[in-house]
Amino acid sequence: MLPPAAQLTAQQQALQTRLLQFIQVHQHDETTAVFVLHGDAGSGKSAVLNAVFTTLQHQAHQPDSALAVLHNRLLVNHNEMLKIYWAVAAADPLLHKSDFQKPTPFINAATKQHRRYDVVFVDEAQLLLSQKDAFNHFDQANQLDALLPLAHVVVLVVDFNQVVKLKSLWTPAMLKQHLAGHQVESAELTHQLRMQDPAVSAWINAFVAGRLLPLPKPADYELRVFPDGAPLVAWVRAKEAEYGLARLIATTDFPFRVFGTRTWYVQAGSVRLPWDKINFTDRPWASRPETLGEVGSIYTIQGFDLNAAGVILGPSLDYDEATDRLTVDPSRFEDQTAFRRRPDLADDEAAKAAIIRHVANILLKRGRRALGIYAVNPRLRARLLALAQ
What is the mean pLDDT of the chain? Predict the structure, then answer.
């Protein structure tokens, strides 16, 4: 799902050159230099990161290169995204599976070994833990502070609109505070590359911000609203047969438990479908044929491109007729691990509501060629159907 460097846009290629120059200039700095790459979901951030990392690993094997013999790692705190990078490594003889890791084992091992790497890349850096987490065997204050001493250069890919847990809550102000005293350069990717029509992306941006606008009628993108889950399921199966990589995904508004053998379900109108299960294989969830009968979540789809996404908006998202706006109710959001209380947050409810909006934004922007929507709450469903006319 990650395109080769030859397929990068002009904006991405210019950024790749700039990043490599930054690394060359700062590769021997004692105080860690940091490059921060911003961009919306689908703007091609991971593609640039992959291209730069692959170039760096290739040049590390060339004795006459200015970037020779560097020791580098790429980290991502998301199981399914890590599998995508492992697939990239399997296709390139100069890349290794061990080049790609999750932050916690990398931090713990490098800290124990007193080892400093040359360049550490962090994809989905907004998923770095911003507090201690015994469940993940991380006992330092936060993962960014723990990472900085472990590399001469750190490259962070950040989208604050994809923060999905309080324990990994990051804001622009927090990032600036933690990077104080470091040489910092930043850039932003502004083009929407995943979704093939910018009007659809703009409509989603308005929707998650609360504004419900008439649905655009793009010529090269299919955007539909469904009155029930059954036709949405049939539509996704038709898209899978037509061009592949079509899946059902939902906001984490339906009961589930991560561990155990019980099957948990998503109720979408007249249909009841099983949630995705823990994926112990090396293949990303959406690339496995058997998952066509499941419903994916942010835990299995974040960072992955689908051709068609059938999105089920759960009970936490509703509609206020008086204000004509989307409403968010954190008490109806089932992913309570995302809301594990933090004593350092003054306004938990605002942070919780923001997380739900982020989840909706991530899911609605998965489809490259088509997006189908079913809303569980009748008021929101009726309003969306009216806006589609």
Answer: 91
